[in-house]
């Protein structure tokens, strides 16, 4: 049985991770948790991109040997993923032998097929994005210096012998693939861009560097190293070596600035190698700060650890996927995080769970009637019927849409509490009170299932407060000693889920 296989980009190790990297990896983790939760065998791959000129330069500047430098920064990414509760199944580094062997194997195959040939590259190169830049796309800076249109940094002039990949020949096949597989390019507004770009005609690309030593040697020609993008893209496939239940990937999730690499070059490499293409390549938007892309090169990045120390891991995971549609850009500010935290997490969700749990404890001794006589109940008619719509949005990676729908339901549950006023019913209609509370608890149990991929700790805490008979991973030794363990299964108010922030 093929596993549902999700990938993130392999992040460069030139600097520590920031909110932008956390964003993609959290999104991939949310999708993986969602799929696992519905019983689908899932595989999440992430890792680090460690070769090339940029890393070579950064290692030199740090005074470390390249591999020691890579070890240290790659470790920071791993540490962050642990902190952010990312459940990845594999972590690949491009400096691992398992990867290097496969890159050489594929490079040699394409040379043999005649899809990689030797030539000469004369032109511009952007070290920040590790990409070749056309003269026409360069920006003229002071004193006529040519600058990268992306990073604004000076471009290098290269004149070297190189190997070319015959990308130009794959244009018609790529266009046919986009046409026949409408789900391949996502979201759909990005598809147009790619189709236009390919339709305009593709040029062959240089896939080796003569002057960069920190890379994988070209098979049979060790004076050249494999171009870092050709090297890195292959990770998605090299990581599947020895497993016949993974390739092709179900979805590659990437940022929009590297979409062409994934939607044009990568599929063309796979076509040249005779390998199946991934099912979907999804490009999300950028987190900006005061309107400018958050990036290592601009030094305007936000440290995810600082945010989690202040707001908690679940709140960061929630905010990143809630703030804007997956695909759009959004500005990161503590003010908008605090606003959503207080309104949506502390108030809409946290207060609701506390109120409901407290009422069941107070009015029903923490126990729900096992089978109340239900007809036209709120749980079924208002809440549970939304599951298919939410699942469909998750499947389409519309995390923002799914959270919107979930919070719509949470607001309806809040309105229901106010409308039915169980505290009044407890005085004059106990049977009705039981029924209303039963409905509310089951509704919240379902909601906690929906939010579980986004906020696993919060979902576990809600389960515990709502008496779901399961010891959550987060149950601590103190909980057991303080007697919470004995009360698992009973409904009771727990610690405040999201303490309000000033
Ligand atoms: O491009 N907003 O690595 P990288 C949203 N090694 N997402 C952002 C972001 C931002 N401001 N900044 C970074 C590379 N990201 C290559 C990839 S894959 C074979 C090789 C996320 O370290 C987003 O996913 O520059 C983006 O595409 C990725 O980090 C770039 O990471």
Explain the overall architecture.
The chain has 502 residues and is α/β, with parallel strands linked by helices. It has two domains: 4-284, Rossmann fold (3-Layer(aba) Sandwich), CATH 3.40.50; 333-487, Isoleucyl-tRNA Synthetase, Domain 1 (Orthogonal Bundle), CATH 1.10.730. Helix content is 48%, strand content 16%. The strands form five sheets. A six-stranded parallel sheet has the order 3-2-1-14-15-9, with helices on both faces. It has a four-stranded antiparallel sheet with strand order 5-4-8-10. It has a three-stranded antiparallel sheet with strand order 11-13-12. The relative contact order is 0.11. The structure holds ligand ME8.
SSE order and pairing:
Elements: E1 4-12, H1 19-37, E2 42-49, H2 53-62, H3 66-83, E3 90-93, H4 97-113, E4 116-126, E5 131-133, E6 139-140, E7 146-147, E8 156-165, H5 171-180, E9 185-186, H6 188-199, E10 205-206, E11 208-209, E12 217-218, E13 221-226, H7 228-233, H8 235-238, E14 251-255, H9 259-273, E15 281-284, E16 287-289, E17 292-293, H10 304-311, H11 313-322, E18 330-331, H12 334-364, H13 378-383, H14 387-395, H15 399-420, H16 422-428, H17 430-451, H18 456-465, H19 477-481
Parallel strand pairs: 1-2, 1-14, 2-3, 9-15, 14-15, 16-18
Antiparallel strand pairs: 4-5, 4-8, 6-7, 8-10, 11-13, 12-13, 16-17
Helix pairs in contact: 2-3, 5-6, 10-11, 12-15, 12-17, 14-15, 15-17, 16-17, 17-18
This protein binds ligand ME8.
Ligand ME8 is lined by residues 9-12, 20-21, 23-24, 49, 232-233, 235, 254-255, 257-258, 286-287, 293-295.
């Amino acid at each position: 049985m093929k596993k549902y296989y999700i990938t993130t980009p392999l992040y460069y190790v030139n600097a520590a991770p920031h909110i932008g990297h956390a964003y993609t990896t959290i999104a991939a983790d949310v999708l993986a948790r969602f799929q696992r939760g519905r019983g689908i065998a899932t595989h999440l791959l992430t890792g680090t991109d460690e070769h090339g000129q940029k890393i070579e330069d950064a290692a030199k500047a740090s005074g470390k040997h390249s591999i020691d430098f890579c070890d240290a920064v790659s470790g920071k990414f791993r540490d962050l993923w642990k902190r952010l509760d990312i459940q990845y199944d594999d972590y690949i580094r491009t400096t691992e032998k398992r990867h290097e062997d496969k890159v050489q194997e594929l490079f040699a195959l394409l040379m043999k097929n005649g899809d990689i040939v030797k030539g000469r590259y004369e032109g511009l190169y952007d070290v920040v994005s590790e990409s070749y830049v056309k003269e026409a796309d360069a920006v003229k800076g002071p004193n006529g210096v040519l600058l990268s249109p992306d990073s604004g940094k000076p471009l290098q002039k290269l004149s070297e012998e190189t190997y070319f990949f015959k990308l130009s020949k794959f244009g018609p096949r790529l266009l046919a693939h986009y046409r026949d597989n409408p789900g391949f390019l996502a979201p759909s507004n990005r598809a147009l861009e790619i189709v236009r770009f390919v339709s305009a005609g593709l040029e062959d690309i240089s896939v080796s560097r003569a002057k960069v030593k920190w890379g994988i040697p070209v098979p049979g020609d060790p004076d050249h190293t494999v171009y870092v993008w050709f090297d890195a893209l292959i990770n998605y496939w090299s990581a599947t070596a020895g497993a016949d239940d993974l390739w092709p990937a179900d979805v590659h999730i990437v940022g929009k600035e590297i979409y062409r690499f994934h939607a044009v070059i990568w599929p063309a490499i796979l076509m040249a190698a005779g390998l199946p293409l991934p099912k979907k390549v999804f490009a999300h938007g950028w987190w900006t700060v005061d309107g400018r892309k958050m990036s290592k090169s601009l030094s305007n990045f936000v440290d995810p650890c600082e945010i989690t120390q202040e707001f908690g891991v679940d709140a960061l995971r929630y905010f990143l996927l809630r703030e804007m549609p997956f695909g759009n850009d959004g500005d990161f500010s503590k003010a908008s995080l605090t606003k959503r935290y207080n309104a949506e997490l502390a108030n809409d969700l946290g207060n609701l769970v506390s109120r409901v749990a407290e009422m069941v404890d107070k009015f029903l001794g923490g126990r729900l009637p096992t089978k109340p006589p239900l007809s036209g109940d709120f749980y079924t008619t208002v809440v549970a019927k939304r599951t298919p719509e939410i699942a469909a949005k998750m499947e389409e990676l519309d995390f923002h849409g799914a959270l919107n729908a979930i919070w719509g339901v949470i607001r309806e549950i809040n309105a229901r509490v106010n409308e039915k006023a169980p505290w009044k019913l407890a005085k004059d209609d106990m049977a009705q009170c039981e029924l209303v509370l039963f409905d509310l608890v089951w509704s919240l149990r379902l909601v906690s299932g929906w939010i579980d991929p986004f906020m696993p700790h919060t979902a576990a805490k809600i389960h515990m407060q709502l008496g779901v008979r399961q010891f959550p991973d987060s149950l601590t030794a103190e909980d057991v000693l303080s007697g919470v363990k004995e009360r698992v299964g009973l409904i009771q108010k727990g610690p405040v889920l999201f303490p309000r922030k000033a």
